[in-house]
Amino acid sequence: MVTKGSADYRDSGLQFAPDFVIGSATASYQIEGAANEDGRGPSIWDTYSHTPGKVWNGDTGDVADDHYHRFEQDLDIMKDLGLDSYRFSIAWPRIQATGVGAANEKGLAFYSKLVDGLLERGIRPIATLYHWDLPQALEDEGGWTNRGTAYRFAEYTEHAVRALGDRVHTWTTLNEPWCSAYLGYGSGAHAPGRTDGAAALTAVHHLNLAHGLAIPVIRETATNDPQTSVTLNFHVIRGDDETTPEAARRIDALANRAFTGPMLKGAYPADLLEDTASVTDWSFVQDGDEKLIHQPIDILGVNYYSTVTVKMWDGVSPRENADGHKDVGGSPWPGSRDVEFQVQAGPYTDMGWNIAPDGLEELLLHLHEEFPEQALMITENGAAFPDTVEDGRVHDVERTDYLNRHFTAAHRAIEKGVDLRGYTVWSLMDNFEWGYGYSKRFGIVRVDYDTQERTLKDSALWLKSLIATRTLP
Ligand code: FCB
Asked: Contact, 104 vs 112, CB < 8 A?
């Protein structure tokens, strides 16, 4: 997956098939608010965001977009945009305040109303079971470093699917387990904020195990023959240094194959185990685990924003280490801290992430080549820019252009034979962007955090036109 260069991906007039599913996405902690209502327990993100110094400006998800109270209005916005699908996540601590035991009926009722509201408006519900808000009580017992958490996840899955498994179209087990494991337990840039490489790799395995345990539960419990999936944030790795191939192999192993190996091939890659031998002996992988994790899934969810460029650090020169994530002391790359992440050519989004639509095409082609039978869906793609409101409008030219280029890239991949089923724009509305709080705006709908007023940005109108015409405006 090592290439260079970028082509011009700005195009219009390209057509998408009528059954290509175009939608938008959010996640529970980022939008819901109502952190202490109707029996919701604290999650690791409540604890983390309330810890001074962890999140920009001390921002928390206590109120966020107040979606918990305003979901009907948000559903109407989705209907107005004509979304084919809406990808949301279920907050585990709303269903089980402490991550164990009986289901909280009020929590289930909220998602039941949301799903009904989607179906009434002709929008396909895509539910993610875990988008990072682990019940704090489970973290107190080790969180994802505790094997028991994977089993608790399967029990929670059963509660959720029992309540919604007659209506949800697609179930996604995990969102970006890379972030949960390596940012949560390795670098400390995400909740729970631990900085321990061995813990991060243990978390990788238990997240994989949670996925493997949950997929059969979904199949057995749902009554509407749903689609099953997982969403991964693949790293598209570049560089032209003579040491790039070695650095790229290491990052590919940690970031990509640590998940696709067991999930889609039934085994951890041997080089991953070798690269990390100084950190852990992987004895947390028990006999039969890899087989368990290797479950057929209907859709592989792909989140893509930008690329990384790497080489091996020579041990002497000052390190760049610009990997696009907040540097908070720990490393998200256990066993491979000597990989250097180089500053990449712009343009950049407000996250400092480089804009590289060719990376999306390349990734889709690569995944199709490696897993030819696996249908794919872009479950997240989008961009943060500092928007301004002028006369009640938001002319977010850069975001619209970003989306146009990435839809073009997706179209090119489809033309080259990739089985790409849909495209979900991140995000439906501005929201709590994790460690960056409310400072980064990814929405196609603007949220005024003082008044909770929603305003369609030009990118939302652009998407509406795309969905209505199936043609890139
Ligand atoms: C992804 C997350 C999503 C959002 C985007 C910008 O890593 O899944 O919640 O924060 O990045």
From this structure: no
